[in-house]
Write a structure and sequence with these properties.
With 323 residues, this protein is mostly helical. It has helices at residues 24-51, 58-87, 94-127, 132-135, 138-164, 181-187, 193-226, 231-264, 268-292, 295-322, and strands spanning 11-14, 91-93, 173-174. 78% of the residues lie in helices and 3% in strands. Strands 2-1-3 form a three-stranded mixed sheet. The chain has ten helices and three strands.
Length: 323
């Protein structure tokens, strides 16, 4: 198709999961519930870490930032999907689609980098416990977080800028519940060679390299744990990184599921369902994984709610006296 026959588009159509009217209330209720659970759970983690001085350590500093990023990642896609489901108006503007791609890639990349930094933190804590506070100084933690933000922001910006160079034709239907970059590349009329290169390059930098770092860290951690003579000491060392290992497994298994579903099948529905695991279910489960097995988090939450009760009691008593 010649360039002069292409028109400047103004919006895309997000088809979501199903166009059947009777399923829309179920889909809306399900995703609203998952979104609220994600928000509430991750906010509790942030409140617990910020309110308890005992949790002002590198591990919980990164955990609170992971919770914040999970809130942002879910908020990038779910509110728009809920609005589209409720109003039955499934369009998204061209500008809105590009912005959604940028922020989705930003926070998904941050999730990846933060999990890698957290693996490094556990490696230092278990393999070099005597030097832990020397190595993981506050300014080092801040620098690791800043580098993660810069790397993610640069890659998402490059992806967004290359998307702006694409031309689109009449087929503007995205068989997904958000503007997924691979779908936009497939809809392009112009040559997407540069975009495909960026996708593969980004997969290596934001996927393979962090995963290699995580695997290396845990290989060293496992080696150190095996050298501990007592079973009680081994259990105690492993329990400090069990939650993080569970989150890493969930994150990469769901991401791998998205990749395999899109590569092995041509079913848009299968790919969309797999993406739900990556973008919605994983951020929702992270707070439960970290809090259910973590006595420090549970203790901090108990202190926080006890403090809230203590503050409210004089206020309630004062109202009763006035009455």
């Amino acid at each position: 198709m010649e360039p002069e026959n292409k028109t400047q588009i103004s919006e895309f159509l997000l088809l979501g999961f199903s166009e059947e009217t009777e399923l829309q209330p179920i889909i809306f209720g399900l995703f609203l519930s998952m979104y609220l659970i994600t928000m509430f759970g991750n906010l509790l983690i942030i409140l617990a870490v910020s309110s308890d001085p005992h949790l002002h350590t590198p591990m919980y500093f990164f955990l609170s930032n992971l919770s914040f990023v999970d809130i942002c990642l879910t908020s990038t896609t779910i509110p728009k999907m809920l609005q589209s489901t409720q109003t039955q108006r499934k369009v998204i503007s061209y500008e809105g689609c590009i912005i959604q791609v940028y922020f989705y890639l930003l926070f998904a990349g941050l999730d990846d980098f933060l999990l890698t930094v957290m693996a490094y933190d556990r490696y230092v804590a278990i393999c070099h416990p005597l030097h832990y506070l020397v190595i993981m100084k506050p300014w080092v933690c801040g620098l690791l977080l800043l580098v993660s933000w810069i790397m993610s922001a640069l890659f998402s910006l490059l992806h967004s800028l290359t998307l702006l160079q694409l031309s689109f034709c009449s087929d503007l239907e995205i068989h997904h519940f958000f503007c997924e970059i691979k779908w936009l590349i497939q809809l392009a009329c112009s040559d997407p060679f540069l975009n495909n290169i960026m996708v593969y390059f980004g997969s290596v930098i934001q996927g393979s390299i962090p995963l290699t770092g995580i695997l290396y860290s845990y290989s060293k951690i496992l080696s150190s744990i095996c050298r501990i003579s007592s079973a009680k000491g081994q259990y105690k060392a492993f329990s400090t990184c069990a939650s993080h290992l569970s989150v890493v497994s969930l994150f990469y298994c769901s991401a791998l599921g998205v990749y395999l579903s899109s590569a092995a099948t041509h079913s848009s529905y299968t790919s969309t369902v797999a993406s739900v695991m990556y973008t919605v279910v994983t951020p929702m489960l992270n707070p439960f994984i970290y809090s259910l097995r973590n006595k420090d988090i549970k203790r901090a939450l108990k202190r926080f709610f006890d403090m809230e009760t203590f503050i409210k009691q004089p206020f309630v008593l004062g109202l009763k006296d006035m009455g």
